[in-house]
Amino acid sequence: MDFDIKRLGFTLLGLLIVLNWGLLMSSIMRKLGARVAKRYGIRWFQPWLDLVKNYALRSQISHGIMFYLGPVFRIGGGVGLFLFMPMIIGSELWLNYSFHGDLVLLMYFQFFGMLGMALGSGEGGHPYSAIGISRGLSQFTTIEVPMTLAIISLAIQYDTLSLIDIVKAQQGGFQNWTMWTNPVATIAGMFSLLGALSHSPFNLVKAPNEIPIGPPTEYHSTFLGVLQTNAAILHVVEAALFMNLFFGGATNWFEFILKTFFIYFWSVFVGVVFPRFRIEQSVAWFLKIPLVFGVLAIILYM
Amino acid sequence: MSETKNNNKFENPHYAKREVTGPDGKQFIVDPIKDYFSDERPKVYEPNSIPVVEKFLNWARAESLWVLGFGTGCGSIEIPPLMTPRFDAFRFGIQSRPTPRQSNVFIISGYLAVKTLKRVIRSYEQMPSPKYVLALGSCTINGGMYFDSYNTINRLDHYIPVDVYVAGCMPRPEALLAAFNRLKELIKEGKGEKANEYAANFDWYKENQKKIIKDWNMPDYNW
Amino acid sequence: MEYVSLTIGFIVIIAGLWAIMTNRNILRMIIGFSIFDTGLHIVIVSLAYVKGGTAPILDSAVGINEAIDKIVDPVPQALVLTAIVIGLGVTALMLAYAMKLHKEKKSLDIMSFRDLKW
Amino acid sequence: MISPIHIISIGLGTAFALGFLNKKSNGLAVSLMLVAIALMAAVSSSWFIKLYQGAEAIEVYTAGFKPPYSINLRMGLNEALLSSLINLAGFLGGLYMFKNLKNTGKHAIMVFLVFVMGLNVIILTRDAFNLFVFMEVVSIATAGLIILIQDGKSIQAGFKYMIATGIIAGIFLLGIIFAYYFSGSLNIDDISNSNLLAFKGGSVAVLMIIVSVVLELKPFPANGWALDVYEASDPGIAALISAASATAMYFVLFKLMPIADLQWYKIISTAGLITFVGSNLFGLKQTGARRLLGYSSIGQLGLLMTILGLKPFLGDKFEYIAITILISHYLAKAGLFWIAGLLKKDKLKDWALLRKKPLFLVLFGTFVFSLIGFPPFPSFFGKWELIMSLSQQGLYFTLAMILTGSFLEGIYLFRWLGYAIKMESNESWTFKLEWNKVIPPVLFGILVYLAGYYSSTFAENFNGLYFIALAFILIIYLLDFLPAAVKNILSILSLALVSWYMLPGLYSEDMLRFIFTLIFLVGGILTFIAGFAYKGKREGFYPVALLMYAGLAIIIRASTTLEFFFGWELMTAGSYFLIIRGKKSMAHGLSYMLFSMAGAYAILAAFGLSFAETASIQLSSLAAVGGNITVIFSLLAIGFMTKTASLGLHIWLPGAHAEAESDVSPMVSAILLKAGVFGLMILMIAMGNNPEATRVAYVLGWLGALTALVGNLAAAFQEDAKRLLAYSSISQLGYILFALAMMSHLGWMTAMVYSINHFLYKSILFLTIGAVVLKVGTHYMYKMGGLIKNMPLAFIAVLIGIIALAGVPPLSGFAGKWLFYNAVIDKHWYFQGVIVFFSGIIAFLYLFKLIYSVFLGQLKDNLRHVKDISIWFAIPIYILIIGLMIFSAKPDLVLKPLGEMISVWYPNAGLSWEGGLATAPYGYWNGTGVMITIGIMFMALLGWLLLLSSKAVKVGQFNIVYSAEAPQRPETTHVSYNIYAGYNKALGWMVAPKITEFWDTMSDWAHSLAEYGRRLYSGNGQVYTTYVLAYIIAFYLIMIF
Amino acid sequence: MKQVLEKLSASFEIEDIVYQRDDLTFLSAKKENLINLITHLRDIEGFSHFVLLSCVDWIEDDKFQLTYFLNKPEEKYDLGIRCMIDRKEASMDSAHHLWKQIATYQREIKEMFGVDFPGSPGVDEPFILEGWDNIPPMRRDFDTKQYSADTFFPRERPKTNDPKEYMKEQMHPGEWGEYRKEKK
User: Fold this and answer.
1) What is the ipTM of this complex?
2) Cα–Cα dist D677/D664, whole Å
3) Is the Cβ of B28 closer than 8 Å to some Cβ of chain E?
4) Closest by alpha carbon to D510, among D241, D902, D239, D135?
5) C118 with D1021: Cβ contact below 8 A
6) How do residues D619-673 score in pLDDT, each as one tens digit?
7) Which CATH class is domain C2-55+70-112?
8) Which fold has domain B51-190?
9) Do D844 and A115 touch (CB under 8 A)?
């Protein structure tokens, strides 16, 4: 593998697009929530403002090295996921660095950021951080089960674990998407997405009214800015993963934006409707209904 | 000033010095105030040296005001309507945050008992700089109807710097919105530097605070 | 008739065993043991009996040549002597034990010597 | 040569001569007696040497006539050996009881001498009536000794003994007379030649003779009187009864058996078997040492009786088996009784006092291990041959019962050993050692090792070189007075030497063994380095650790099943001692030993079965097994799975690993468990391709998956850091089992990568956590917290360890996960795979808990001045980290050779390489590329953050947002205890301790059975007599039907 | 209820029974008898519910008046038991063993009036005031205005106007201004 400046440039550009699209999506989401409540809501550029404001705050405190590294790990997780995710099919350069590893790499790389964040906020020493993390990890373990079942089902279906190959196999028309060819796995996967994006009813991790926003309680100013940046990237990238897995991927940026928008808003719509689960409820829920779909997905393709 | 007042009568037993035996059997003294808290003094942070950049940043700060969700007195009941469709403070970039670490604006909503003042000081000091204080109601101005109470402060600005006072008992959300707009103007003009003022006059503020908080059992500045 | 003594011997043996097993008194048990021993001796001697045989003494009455047919088997008789001696020894030792046991608990009931069990 | 008859004449003559001695010169009398016994011993042993060199056996005719006209003695090889043993025991026993005898007086001395002499005659004589006479003499002498050397309750026991033996002797006499009646001779050879059973009524004679000798051997249940004697008589006498009398009686039975036929052999073997199992079962409930030894003695006699009964089946192996087991019993039981006499404490739990004299503790351990049949003791080889022969003959039931009995015996003996090693003891009592009481057990202790070596020379295909390792360990033990550092250096050097000797050859020949040698020995060296952190002498640590490593090395080197089993048992013994060294590990050590023993017996049985089928003990011959493959495969798998702690067999592990010392935990977790993996691999290489084995492997796969799940879930709910890691080990071994059971190229690749990784990161974690525990003085995570500030080195190590364990890229743990996915999809084991995957994510729960609770969060008051972990722990930890990093950065370095190795067995569906990019049938992965990409990205992001917030104020641990308050105490602010309460609510039912309950119930049942069973022994002499008669009647009934 | 109280009045030296309403009665008891009385009321007469404990400072009489309010749930009957205690050595027996929650009232009264209740749990810990070092603020000899003035940096208060006059001037400045000037 030799160094390729052009690829690096494209990747950085892609990162920029993803970041801004992520911020815009969160803006739209909040606006939407406001309109549901008959408010005017935030201005559309508010996320950028908040980001700039947070980066511009002057005083910072640090609880120690790991507290400092936590956000780095976290955004490393998001950016790394982006790096190993093929973004636009058909363009060699927009595939980023996905030739280094397959779906398994992506699945396990999610943990990178999570672990870093957990450790960082752990060093903050705040009890709510620890409670939030313990809930987050608990919930995460079960979220991944239907997801894994869906991915294995896909791997059986497409005979590969390579995300690029899976996307390529879905090209050539609307009817080739996994959504139609393997609907059960898609349902399992989309259930899992709900948890992964941690919107209501699975937003117990941050639970602002209960344990002041959970893990990032102690994070502020620049650190918080980094975390916000990561959130924007991560949400788009996760949506992109589901897009690639179930909805035929994207052949251009417009398609990318359209598809990620709808995938992301699936969780928003659900979140508007359902109240929050307690942790043991959400754990048990993921091991019931989505699990059944996941198992079904494998049985159907075995 | 640097010496914390150690009046035994009011000492919290948890913050008293204690002798502890380590796992290797050696004994040593733990002084919680010194060992568990940072004793660094606040700093005066200079604005960005490039005026344009500072102006831009001030604009961002002004348009993204995150309010600490801490209701100190009766006025805290006026804040929730602020977020409702009728007043909808979100459109001004205002939103509430549950932790002082992530907040910029502290609304002192009404009378302050001495006991509450201690918590207010702690929360205020935990907010990252630059930070702003909105003081609500006459109680924060001159004690209001509690002017002769044995336990309620009369003037907030002797204890923490106040950016905007809102008179009234209680001021309506409209008044609060007006105060926010005034605050925005101040910030955009570059006058939202009260945090630096607090740091610069730190000793004076501390003296005032310690005068009424008799059981002072925290470090001078709560980072 | 030749089995009479043998049968009697066995009956005595069984009587001895019966005595050992039904009497809780240690002395009675020892007596039972002696009876059992005696029964054994009777059996031994009667087994050696050859119908119509004489005492196994080679003298003028029984010549060497006819001894094989005429006399009873001498070996068991020799054995019985040894067995009686041994039985005596055993009985004596038992009595010594009985004495010691009595000294210990002032009782001769076998049921009172159950400190060791399980 | 002196005629053997002089053995008798010396004994009798001296006994008479003693009568002339002055009353006050008792000391002289005892000395004279000892001289006499020594002379007797000299005679018999000189005969033994001569006969062993090939001389003919001789007959001695006492009256000058040939039998039947006179009594004849025979001095053959067996007789010479046994009478030497008896005289030796008599001499040492006399020495041991020197003071006792002296105080009692000349009568006792004479009786003692007569006792020994009588036993000699019993061995030598070939005349039935003479046998009777001397059996009576010995019996009277025994009773006399009991009554003369009074010891409270011993009189009661003696009387019961007299009644029972009196009746038995009567029956014996009757039998002899009848035999004489039918055969016309008293000579045993004549009797057996005359074929008694052909006569009408002759069989009654046989019955009476055999049954009375059998009764002398104390068969269950007609043995209450014997137990009382063992319990109550002076331990010196009990030692003689157990060692010498039993030996003689056993030989009598051996001598008399030719008069009976095959059916009698069967009856005897059954009776022996019942005795063996029954008395060992009842032994479970004993609390007194001497009665326990009584039960054990009776059990051993039962085993010997079984072996005698099996003589027609064992063929020429009989003598070897019988003698090895007899000698083990003889040496060990005498030694144990002697130690019991020294200690003067009868309660098993009081044996903790033995710790004050480490030499006796070692002797005690030696005797216990030799009784149960561990290597290198003679009974190990005896049992091995026994099992092999039994399975060759198809006597599976007998085989199973013998193993069951041995297992039961192991339970109480190891519990007892555990009490001695670990039981809390507050008594300040010390025992005084007199030289004459020390020499006998010490001598027997040495003898048992020599006998072990000697019996190994008879074993086929056994490499005697292994004893060099044992000799080295012995030297280390003898150097125990040196400071720990010196012994540590010696140990490291020895391991390095062995590695240097073994590794180069294996690298080119056998990659599998090479890797496991690396794990075992290099891992051993690294963990030994950590041992430098310990001050003082660490008495007893190095010999046992080396014993374990020796066992592991032997397993690697083994080419035959015997060698393999030898190494396996050595390793078990060594690790048992390592484990039991920890605090509070008495119970865990016992459960480890019991599971290991059961596993070892399963392995032994399987080896036996395979030997029966292939008639070869080469390891490679396992591949040739065809018929019983399911049974053999399952047995071996169960045996190995006790070491890998798979679900159901895992309950020993958490406690054992958690309570072990800091540097022992990695030894027993990261290294020892791999022995099970190695065994499983050997097994699957040999048998894996058989379709029936594949079916078993399918079950193993599920078992592995469930083990992984349950282990990880349980780990998430632990509060004890080392216990958490122990459960984590269980689940990791579950992964490996699962991957092995896949039996495909990728599956094995996964298993190997997991094995290597688990070795690396579990060593790192256990060493680090162990070092931290040493510093902070507690295992409980909620009592730690915030240690990152004091222990950065430890934190980094744990961080790397948990990232690797979690399988997060870019570290090497991901290699295992990636391979695992490909393997699972390739093998179509989806659901098991998902379970394993699920448990892999659950790992995050406990890993976070581990690092957070220990290093992050709030630093406690008492830990404010804790220093970083010891440098001696840091060195091996960081060496391992370097290894881990190399593996992570260049996975192809390891994966390529692994692939080549596995291609030998599974050539299909491997990885294909293209530079650093590995392509499996389903996916692709470039470890190096990922590492570089992530590294660059991470550094860039870090630089960015540093640029933005370089001026952050470093604050104290209480400077947190606390709802406008400040925390008051670190303890109440550190959220760590039961942190996954919600998860527990949802999924805690999965880890309810059902399996522990199951084993507890099993144990309760066994103990209840023992409790009710042993009530047979009511303590009433009459009842015992009834049992004796009932036993005879039962034999009669069996005979006539 | 009347009979009950009259019956009790003898044995517990009850005075001044005031039947305020059908369901409310006040009575006075001596300090020594008070605990016995309420114990009796609770255990025998069924006044199982403790409502509140209050304190009044009769500085003129040099007394503190403690009032224990009890309630009988079955009859919905309230009973106020007054007790005068000496102001100089203000101390009263604790009743926390009867109802746990009394401890909290006692703690507050200790803080605000300085009436001691020896043995009451936590009675010396600060209840509302943290670090109070003056005389208890609810005592009538405590000058709260002066205290506030000394402590809390009082802002100079604006001149106060008569609202009537002031508003007149504000609303009709011309008319009334002239008038006022003239008047002055």
Assistant:
1) 0.86
2) 19
3) no
4) D902
5) no
6) 888 888 877 888 888 999 999 999 888 888 888 888 888 888 888 888 888 888 8
7) mainly alpha
8) Rossmann fold (3.40.50)
9) yes
